[in-house]
Write a structure and sequence with these properties.
- The protein is elongated.
- It is mainly α and 80 residues long.
- It is built from 4 helices and no strands.
- The chain folds into 2 domains: 3-40, no CATH class; 47-77, no CATH class.
- The chain has helices spanning 3-15, 20-40, 47-62, 69-77.
């Protein structure tokens, strides 16, 4: 069974639920699992990782691989 099939089956089952308490629990579970997933990617960097990122940033700047604020702001204006 594919992920899409599993999602569809879950949604169908969810739509059959009439008990607010179960819906509340599922909402809380979904929220807490999302927070875990997000916070997993926010672990602090080690000093070695931080220094490597700094070195990469400095190298990017020296080689002209950067954008100026004014250019970014112009680009953002086109998003609207």
């Amino acid at each position: 069974m594919t992920t899409v099939d599993r999602k569809l089956r879950f949604v169908q089952e969810f739509l059959r639920i009439a008990d607010d308490e179960i819906i509340d629990k599922l909402e809380k579970l979904l929220g807490s699992e999302r927070k875990k997933k997000i916070s997993k990617g926010l672990d602090p960097l080690t000093m070695d990782e931080l220094n490597k990122r700094i070195d990469q940033s400095e190298d990017d700047f020296k080689k002209g691989r950067f954008s100026e604020t004014k250019d970014l702001l112009k680009s953002i204006e086109t998003w609207k």
